[in-house]
Amino acid sequence: MPTSKDPSFAAIIPEGDNRLRQVCTDCGFVAYENPKVVVGAVVTLGEKILLCRRAINPRKGFWTLPAGFMELHESAETGAAREALEEANAKIEIEALLAAYTIPRLSQVQLIYRARLIDPAISAGVESLEVGLFDYADIPWDELAFPSVNWALTQFASVRHLSVFPAFGNPPGETGDHHP
Amino acid sequence: MPTSKDPSFAAIIPEGDNRLRQVCTDCGFVAYENPKVVVGAVVTLGEKILLCRRAINPRKGFWTLPAGFMELHESAETGAAREALEEANAKIEIEALLAAYTIPRLSQVQLIYRARLIDPAISAGVESLEVGLFDYADIPWDELAFPSVNWALTQFASVRHLSVFPAFGNPPGETGDHHP
Ligand SMILES: [Zn+2]
Ligand SMILES: [Zn+2]
């Protein structure tokens, strides 16, 4: 396993690189660690917005957007649609990129798309306790799973009636950590 | 090493997952493989655009945007600025997200920002043979390193005089593979 606990791995700057990596001293394999990509969507049916209550940790019991880790060999848009299907049995059509966030503490990039529910039949997938369609005024703001869910919903509201809008990044000064 | 060549790893669906992963049969470590994130920028100085001629493979000798793999614990914007500094000694200011591309064959997400050169002094970093500032009409289209460089430059041109514009994705039907 390419971890620093493996005795054959050592922290070495590989040739042509400029920082320490975990390198196998037996065979030279460089175990690059990379940021992870989360893909998700703000999914609407008319004025209503799809949220999922998490059945798993972290933040079990809190509400989130359908989103999850992007798989190999899929596009970001396909991944976002796959997550909506897995978590809410929701068939969606991707419309536009809403935001590209970074959570440096978690080395996580989040690509959040705006999407349309193309079949009103939704139900909880294995990672959801329940799913629901919420009016913006009824969003359970105090029970959202992650700061970035709040960002996406707020930013979405500011452009929801525009067909063309620039993609957002993190709100100024925000890093994705929970505020006390 | 968590590869399928390691005899202690086997293809297993971990509990709570829904697809085969490489799992160590000794200790249960799941070697998730994740898409990689490339961050880069279309950097301008007035009407001119910064390009770098690659000193390394793949596509050594061809022209590209300053871009490279995002590191752990940095934001995408910081990463794009770092790459411009490493590859072209270019100090830049990120303006807006230009595009989020996916290259499924390479399991690669590319986040390309629009940026402004804040100091006209540029020079080749170790991964560049030379760097240059090009008028759009003088871009060496036949010597661009990757299809996504072409996409970014073309899409950039379509919005360069707009201060607000939607982020692009892959052009319709394009997957990032070279056309014959
Ligand atoms: Zn090894
Ligand atoms: Zn093991």
Automatic annotation (TrEMBL), chains A, B:
Pfam families: NUDIX, Zn_ribbon_Nudix. CDD domains: NUDIX_Hydrolase. Residues 34-157 form the Nudix hydrolase domain. Its cofactor is Mg(2+). One of its GO terms (molecular function) is hydrolase activity. Keywords: Hydrolase. This is NUDIX hydrolase.
